[in-house]
Write a structure and sequence with these properties.
The complex is a heterodimer.
Chain A: H1 2-20, H2 29-41, H3 46-82, H4 98-108, H5 119-137, H6 154-162, H7 164-175, H8 179-210, H9 215-221, H10 225-228, H11 233-239, H12 249-265, H13 277-280, H14 290-315, H15 339-360, H16 366-393, H17 396-418
Helix pairs in contact in A: 1-2, 2-3, 3-14, 3-15, 4-14, 5-6, 5-7, 5-14, 7-8, 8-12, 8-16, 12-14, 12-16, 14-15, 16-17
Chain B: H1 4-22, E1 47-51, H2 67-71, E2 77-83, E3 89-99, H3 108-112, E4 118-120, E5 136-137, H4 139-142, E6 143-145, H5 146-152, H6 154-185
Parallel strand pairs in B: 1-6
Antiparallel strand pairs in B: 1-4, 2-3, 3-5
Helix pairs in contact in B: 5-6
The chains are: A mainly alpha, B alpha+beta.
Chain lengths: 432, 189
């Protein structure tokens, strides 16, 4: 054991001097370290096998749990400022350690299970909700080659596993033996099932264009290859930005639709009906306390991260950003700023917009929510699908005006059709 | 264009968000312990007793008339008259208790007091470690000087002082008149 460790430390030194000395590709440092560690672990038998697997999953769980903590702080601060107050500012500098204080409070709380609750269901619901939330992260290409599972059906798998969330939410609602929980669970089922349609239909356009459901391939496709490989830094920079799908008419539409559906899928305001605290206390969370409650929240936020990660991957270019090749490097794929920086930047910008929306818009009514999914998002998603199909087969000078025209017109028409006829006409009231 | 309303709303919240960093008017919150004392002149919570001069007991304005005790809606005031050695009731309270946990700050005691003696305090840092004794304010704790009154409610204190001075002047006038009358009615020697 002593010898193995000694050898390990020696190898680290050698490897560092060999690879990091030149810093050929800053983007790939993490990948190189991981690859080397994996070959190193290869000699360690079963322990090495377990370590190599943990290496793929533990950082993912740790990083996104950290993001969750940061987001709760950001959310409370942001909402506070929107409402003209400070937000948490007592624990640590600028209240930064507030999530830790919250966590300690949660862990110390009594775990109450209602007497007539379905004990097994009540216990399993928070455990099950963690599975889709954490599994969704596996498909996010955080940087070039930084992806836990690069499989060809990633997108399909992501949406399939994402729908387990509604199961566990309903499980929690049913098992709690509480009418508020049940109402919350039912709302969750109705909402999540409805919004799955526009969510998937707006994501499908990207699959149509790229021709692959592999998320890594989708991100690679959002570069203008000839520009990125050229020698001019400005072109390299632009080539990694202008290729994003969001800069095309069908992509912009798809992105907006996907983002709105993502708000609903992640139970975020203004679509937070399943846990509308002013109507049904906390919906399916009513009977949960302590660590189980914390797990629900963690899962919800991680789920949000997964879904906006997919938004980023599909439309906002994933880890692509205004990036250049380091001048000293001879690797054509080298990037000066590591890709994951851009990825997390985009995720946090989207998260910030979600917080902003939460601070602005009031909650929808349940019929408005359903109507919005079926009568507004779904038709637009289908039209977008058709437009994308036409755009693909047209020359750009014809495709652009055509698709902009069709999308704008169809938006106006769908809005018009959705307008209630009751609003402007005189209502007649009859008394019993 | 439809959907404008949402954008307008977003703009409003964005203005509030960034405005709270630059404009003091948007961020009116005062961080409590380190933000300093920001009590407004009109604020009030628990009554206190005013005394004139230096000695609290000697300068007490209260005459134990018990009007406030009777007027108090939640009945949080308890007064016992002081007696001299021969058992004769004196014009000052021996016990004057206010139960701060019962007082609702209605200011009715202040309105009924004929002697400008009881006024509302604005000190809100009243937390104690003891629920019963700690919140039972006795005479010594309630008595505060006129200077303090001038500090917390300058306008009220000035008005009160003016009224007292007016009263004193009238009393002196009456006394002088009575003396004059007395001297007039006395048979001249």
């Amino acid at each position: 054991m002593q010898d193995t460790l000694n050898l390990f430390v020696m190898n680290i030194g050698q490897w560092l001097s060999a690879n990091l000395g030149t810093l050929n590709n800053p983007d790939q440092i993490i990948v190189e370290i991981a690859r080397w560690l994996r070959t190193e672990f290869g000699n360690w038998g079963v322990v090495g096998f377990i370590l190599a697997n943990l290496m793929a999953t533990v950082p993912l769980i740790a990083v996104f749990s950290g993001c969750f903590a940061l987001t709760t702080w950001l959310e409370r601060k942001g909402l506070g400022r929107i409402q003209n107050r400070y937000g948490p500012n007592r624990v640590g500098p600028y209240g930064l350690f507030q999530p830790m204080a919250d966590g300690i409070k949660m862990l110390l709380k009594e775990d109450i299970v209602p007497e007539r609750a379905d004990k097994i269901g009540h216990f399993l619901a928070p455990v099950i909700i963690m599975i889709p939330a954490m599994t969704g992260l596996v498909f996010l290409p955080i940087g070039r080659n930084i992806i836990a599972a690069s499989i060809d059906s990633a997108l399909l798998f992501f949406f399939a596993i994402g729908s387990i969330v509604s199961l566990s939410v309903f499980m929690a609602g049913w098992a709690s033996h509480n009418k508020f929980s049940l109402v919350g669970g039912m709302r969750a089922i109705a909402q999540l099932v409805s919004y799955e349609m526009p969510l998937i239909l707006s994501a499908v356009v990207v699959v149509m264009f790229v021709g692959s459901m592999n998320t890594s391939v989708i991100v690679e496709a959002q570069q203008i290859k000839s520009w990125v490989t050229s020698d001019a830094p400005a072109l390299q920079c632009l080539g990694q930005v202008l290729g994003w799908h969001v800069f095309q008419p069908w992509g912009l539409m798809g992105f907006l639709l996907l983002f709105v559906s993502a708000l609903a899928e992640a139970n975020r305001s203004p679509f937070d009906l399943p846990e509308a605290d002013s109507e049904i206390i906390a919906g399916h969370l009513t009977e949960y306390s302590g660590f189980k409650y914390a797990l629900f929240f963690l899962a919800e936020y991680v789920n949000t991260f997964a879904i906006i990660g997919i938004c980023t991957t599909l439309f906002l270019g994933g880890w692509n950003g205004p990036n250049i090749r380091p001048p000293w490097s001879d690797d054509p794929q080298a990037l000066l700023i590591p890709g994951f920086v851009w990825f997390f930047l985009k995720i946090f910008v989207l998260m910030g917009i979600m917080i902003w929306i939460r601070g602005t818009l009031p909650r929808l009514r349940i019929d408005q929510l359903m109507g919005f999914a079926w009568k507004f998002l779904l038709p637009l998603a289908i039209i977008n699908l058709l437009v994308a199909g036409c755009f693909y087969h047209m020359e750009w000078y014809f495709g652009w005006p055509f698709s902009i025209l069709i999308l704008c017109k169809s938006y106006a028409i769908v809005v018009r059709l959705n307008k209630s006829k009751l609003v402007n006409s005189n209502r007649t009231y009859t008394y019993a | 264009m439809n959907g404008q309303g949402i954008l307008k709303g977003m703009l409003v919240t964005a203005k509030n968000f960034f405005g709270s960093y630059v404009s003091r008017e948007r961020l009116t919150t005062v961080s409590y312990p380190e933000g300093g004392n920001t009590i407004k002149e009109q604020s009030r919570n628990i009554p206190f007793l005013v005394f004139d001069g230096e000695d609290p007991v000697a300068g007490m304005r209260c005459t134990a008339c018990q009007k406030c005790e009777k007027a108090c809606p939640p009945q949080c005031i308890f007064i016992e008259k002081d007696k001299d050695e021969r058992g004769k009731a004196l014009q000052r309270p021996k016990v004057f208790d206010i139960d701060a946990s019962v007082c609702m700050g209605c200011q009715i005691c202040v309105e009924v007091c004929p002697f400008e003696s009881i006024w509302m305090d604005s000190n809100f840092e009243l937390s104690t470690f003891n629920r019963f004794e700690g919140l039972q304010f006795n005479r010594e704790k309630l008595l505060k000087s006129n200077t303090y009154f001038h500090k917390i409610h300058p306008q009220q204190a000035q008005a009160s002082d003016d009224r007292l001075a007016e009263k004193e002047r009238k009393r002196l006038e009456r006394e002088a008149a009575r003396r004059a009358e007395k001297s007039a009615s006395e048979p001249q020697v």
